[in-house]
Amino acid sequence: MNIELIDKKNKRVGQLEIDFDLLMTEADQMSGETFGKAVEIIKGLIQRKEDWQFEDGTEPLINKYLRKFAAFGYSKEHLVIKVKEGKGEQPVLDFTAHSFEEVVKLPNQRFQDRYDRLVGLDELKHHIEKEAALIVAPEMLREWSQKYHDIPIKALDAFGDRYPFFIFEGDVGTGKTEFAETFGNSLANFIRKNVILARMSMKSRGNGVVGEMSKIISKAFADAQALANQAKSPVILLLDEADSLAQSREEQQMHHEDRAGVNALIQGIDHIRNATEPILVVFCTNRVQAIDPAIKRRAGLIHAFTRPNMDQRYEVFRSYFHDLELNKIELNLLARMTGENETRNYGFTYSDLITRIIPQAVLNAYPDKKLTFDIIVETIQAVKPTPPFKEE
Fold first, then answer.
1. Band of the pLDDT at 95, cuts 50, 70, 90?
2. What fold is seen in the domain 100-305?
3. CA 339, CA 348: separation in Å to the nearest integer?
4. H/E segment holding residue 135
5. pLDDT exceeding 70 applies to what percent of the chain?
6. Per-domain residue ranges for the chain?
7. Mean pLDDT on 288-306
8. N or C end of the chain: which has fewer CB within 10 A?
């Protein structure tokens, strides 16, 4: 979305380009009417970036433009804002940076709801929460040591050499990406601080121009640090399908531009260890074997997400069907039916259970039947699990 700034003589004095989706996402997280908050964000950006203030009566016109843009998804005309000289306060987030597909301030109830739907993973949630807290809030570790040992014990020194870098790997549909996108909400509540989630755009691959890919990756790390410094909050820098950018330099057919990109990733991970505000890098991949060994060596944690086991499948069905009053025998049968059997050596993924079986069972009962155990069983028998990912 392009914004042109004009003075009281209608002379063009500046311009901005803002990602509309990111703007509305941040506005939606603020208390109050969404479009009104979006106007406030734009106002802050103009005050900080261009050293201008709105002329009186400008806000309603901007509000009207944003509503029109939202309704049609685009606008042929630029947003023209009349401004006057004057400097204001800086906004929390800079929406003019285009390194990220999404920037979200946590805690956020929508992300908490998504995180809560990841059932059967309580042990993993607790483990990752602690690991991440030691990176983004290291003072908590020192407070623990002071409480139980009266001094900062020597063992704490070992944490200083760890890279703030996690790799979540696993088959398609095992929940690694959903977990990566939402665990920061629980982390924010645990450390009692805001946390910024910045999801790196897959546009980072660039167009193959020499030097482009490495520059874009370097800019993403720089933008993450800028976000952290502006918000005075830790940042989770997330890259999904990380193998597309971090593939091993040992591959014979690897293009020199890809090699430069991998080098830029390594340098970025190395550099953020000394960032003023903590930054946690999280890679998600279903091809961990393809990631460059130098990158994997830097991972402070590599967790393999697997298909749900018997107990976890039971917990999924218990959670989603708890108000149907299914008994333990019935829940156990559903869990067994969605696991391995004599015709296949793999069970259903979390995604299969939550986005395919459960909605389909509801649809099979809707609109003139009650959702019953028998309908759920018939649905499971009709749906096939996603086959495991196999690399060519």
1. very low
2. Rossmann fold (3.40.50)
3. 6
4. helix 122-136
5. 88
6. 2-85, 100-305, 310-382
7. 93
8. C
